[in-house]
Amino acid sequence: MTAALDSPTGILRDAPPTSIGRQALGQLVGKRISLASLIVVSFYVLVGLLSFTPFVKDRIDQSYSLDNAYAPPALRQTLADGSKTISPAVWFGLDFEGRSVFWRAAYGTRMALLIMVCTCAISISIGAVLGLIAGYFGGWVDDLITWLYSTVSSIPWLLLVIALAYVIQNIQMVNARPAPSWIAEFFGGSTTVILALGLTDWVGLCRLIRGEVIKLRDLDFIVACRAMGLSEGRILLRHILPNTMHIILITFSLSSVAYVQVETVLAFLGLGITSKPSWGRMIDDSKLELLRGVWWELAAATVAILVLSLALNILGDALRDALDPKLHGVK
Amino acid sequence: MPTPLLELRNLSIAFDTERGQIRPVQGVSLSIFPGQTLAVVGESGCGKSVTALSILRLIPGPPGRVLGGEVLFEGRDLLALSEKQMRAVRGKDIAMIFQEPMTSLNPVFTVGEQIVEAVQLHQNVGTREAYQIAEQAMHDVGIADPAKRVHEYPHRLSGGMRQRVMIAMALSCQPKLLIADEPTTALDVTIQAQILELLRKLQEERGMAVMLITHDLGVVAENADAVAVMYASKIVEYAAVNDLFDSPKHPYTEGLFRAIPRLGRAGGRLQAIAGTVPNPRRFPAGCKFHPRCPRMSGDALCAQKEPELREIAPGHWAACHHIENFGQKPITPPTSDAIRAKAEART
């Protein structure tokens, strides 16, 4: 008889309650479009992780063409003895040095993931911490932080990013002790982009969280927490922060995509990643070759960015709905 | 004479706002004895909630601050404790439940997690044991099937259920005093009765003292041992519940009783207390109740001198200049014209 109580979302009204994470996952998988975006994002993550292996790294600078010329996308590669073999290296065509667009795009996924995760880690930590402190404690702390982010946001973002990127590049150049080689290898020259973006793009999140915290801090359940004897730090971290999680998630899904796009702009300006291939650098490389009808390098990078952006946007939206317990059981 | 569990002595609170100072609590003194229920009654804005919050030192400051007075809990002055010592008192010795059960629970955690947090904060128990205590507490407040309900999020519970959860959370650490700030105002009448009944039952079982803040005199009659009536930041009458209901001494208390509808008494309009609650920024001089008072005499005493709280009968205090005259002359509530005339005469 309990089956009759089955709610539209597939969660039994009277079923033993499950953890919030499991419920959220159930909801994500339950909707076709969010499931699709989840699969796409997982695919990108998988490709990006695989690109950390030497297998991909060895192939990004290798020439696959006998005459170093452009070759359009093809299924099979012609070898030196004239025989043909199926090889993914030529599926997306070859670039002006005969390098594989396929493998370079795969490596670009790794760069994109690195930029998205590391930049968000920096910008979200700064924005969330400052927003929480400003909103919760108010007074002169709030004034100071508000002044700080108003000042930062009064400077056009791209200009600030470019200026900061130059400064960071300079510091890296004059630094007597270069970073250990494994760090350089891991980040593949993306540290400038990560720092420049992460240190400048926290204002929006800070502002949103500050507002949300101001709304939350006088609610009864926070007063109840205090009446229960909880310390201020614990109230802030255990009760207020989780209530701002939806803002952080949305910001993550939206701004991580923006970071990949801005990387393209920086690459165009010569401030992006130079030592290793990234989508931005691929687009930058291909801008002159369009005249010769070489479209595949541009197309590979652009489509990669487009599909990832779309999937992350949809996923972020679905995630917000799924993680909000107030919406559970509501159709 | 037993020693009081909680004693407020001459407590005064001020809020410094941009438009001047507000004093929502002025010289309030009261005591609560172990196992006793003290009801604090008054209109909205008379200072009852601020008094309750100031016991736990939860007045947001700034703008709020304590001007003077003492809050003695088992002989210790809570106002002199450090913030850390105070946190050990909150929840463990004195717990509080609030008016709005809908917003008193954190929406992103299950009720079990929230009760367990309160339990583990003050008792040195493991998570499994804390959950057992939580389930027992939920069982004690009459929630059916606590083993399952403990994993529910607050939005899946009704208002009455949430208030029960709040009570379970407040009582999970066996506090000696429970401050209930209008615990039934936001609930249906039938649920109100259940919650009050539950509070009384739990109080009897545990010998806990309760400070019940309400504006509902019916609730007072059912639950309280002693009553403090507050008007405009001050206690105007303070008595055992029977004394107060049998012979109210202050004209404000009188007015409150006349404004209660009674079953079985048909016809006629209820008598409201004329006029409105004074603005705390501009309290009237003298007795704060005098512009609305039916006993207001022509001798200008009421308009000039604020009456002190005096012991009229053993254990019965009231603050009025004209208590002796009461009962000798008929009480006629002033008309609105008379009030306007008085107000104009003052300005």
Report on the architecture of this protein.
The complex is a heterodimer of chains A (331) and B (347). Chain A has 331 residues and is an all-alpha fold. Helices cover 64% and strands 2% of the residues of chain A. Chain A has helices at residues 20-30, 32-50, 54-57, 101-137, 139-154, 157-174, 181-187, 191-198, 203-217, 220-227, 232-240, 245-268, 279-286, 296-323; strands spanning 76-78, 84-86. In chain A, strand 1 and strand 2 form a beta hairpin. Mean pLDDT of chain A is 81; it is low at 1-16. Residues 327-334 of chain B have low confidence and may be disordered. In chain B, the strands form 2 sheets. An 8-stranded mixed sheet of chain B has the order 6-7-8-3-9-10-12-11, with helices on both faces. The radius of gyration of chain B is 22 Å and the shape is globular. Chain B is 32% helix and 22% strand. Chain A binds chain B through residues 16-17, 20, 139, 218-221, 223-231, 238-239, 242-243, 245, 325-326, 328-329, and chain B through 56, 58, 60, 62, 87-92, 95-96, 98-100, 103-110, 117-118, 121-122, 148, 151-153, 155-156, 166, 169.
Which features does this protein show?
heterodimer, A: 331 residues, mainly alpha, 2 strands, disordered N terminus, B: 4-stranded antiparallel sheet
